[in-house]
Amino acid sequence: MLNIFEKRFPSELNRNDEYYMSHAYNQALIAWEKDEVPVGAVVVQAGQIIASAHNQTRRTLDPTAHAEILAISQAAKYIGDWRLNECKLYVTKEPCPMCSGALVVSRIQGVYFGLNDPKMGCLGGAINLSNLPSSNHKFKVKGGILKKETHALLNAFFEKKRAEKKEKEAH
Ligand SMILES: [Zn+2]
Predict the structure, then answer these.
(1) What is the C-alpha to C-alpha distance for residues 95 and 99, in angstroms, rounded to an integer?
(2) Which residues are catalytic?
(3) CA 62 – ligand 1 centroid, Å
(4) Alpha-carbon gap, residue 170 to 26, rounded angstroms
(5) In this model, does residue 27 exceed pLDDT 80?
(6) CA 49 to centroid of ligand 1, rounded, Å
(7) I want to staple 94 with a disulfide (CB 3.0 to 4.6 A). Which of 23, 104, 121, 132 is the partner?
(8) 139/131 Cα distance (integer angstroms)
């Protein structure tokens, strides 16, 4: 049985995509605990996680406080360069238009996501900003990492929100 609320402790010995996504997933769980839409992200450079963040739009009243934006800023500060061309970003959901745009201008090396988003995703879902014909910067994109878990967690959140809304309306 899949327990989506359990933190993931992947083995340090096998640092594959699932390893990094597990850390992004744990960030998403922190967002859940704060009643934020559960999306988490980490930035990886030379195999090391140099930034981790979760969505904070509700708490900060800031529509730009998405996990990806926060993680990108953190990573740039850490390496002391706005160019992230030696970094990869792992995020639990396909990035939205804003975050995909930020990833393009950050010159990220690659983006790895969990759940794909055919409605708002801009790395292959609704459109694909990673390979704009006129852009010099193209990057690798891979989706579907921990897809089941990332999907279940987001679904659970929106179900919870719908239930809360119904509850409110009943009173
Ligand atoms: Zn976003």
Answers:
(1) 5
(2) 68
(3) 12
(4) 34
(5) yes
(6) 20
(7) 121
(8) 7
Helix (H, G, I), strand (E, B) or coil at 116: coil
Quote the CA–CA distance of 57 and 49 in Å, as a whole number.
23
> How high does pLDDT run on average in the chain?
96
Q: Read off the pLDDT of residues 87-143 as tens digits, 9 standing for 90 and up.
A: 999 999 999 999 999 999 999 999 999 999 999 999 999 999 999 889 888 999 999
**Would the pTM count as exceeding 0.70?**
yes
Cα–ligand 1 centroid distance for 132 (angstroms)? 18
13 CA → ligand 1 middle, Å:
31
Query: Ligand 1 centre and the CA of 93: distance in Å?
Result: 9
67 vs 54: CA distance, rounded Å: 4
Closest C-alpha to 84, from 101, 103, 68: 103
Q: Count CB atoms within 10 A of the CB of residue 111.
A: 25
Q: Angle at Cα 85 formed by Cα 22 and Cα 92, nearest 5°? A: 25
**Torsion sign over Cα 6, 8, 9, 10:** positive
Is 57 exposed, middle or buried, given 0-12, 13-18 or 19+ CB atoms closer than 10 A?
A: middle
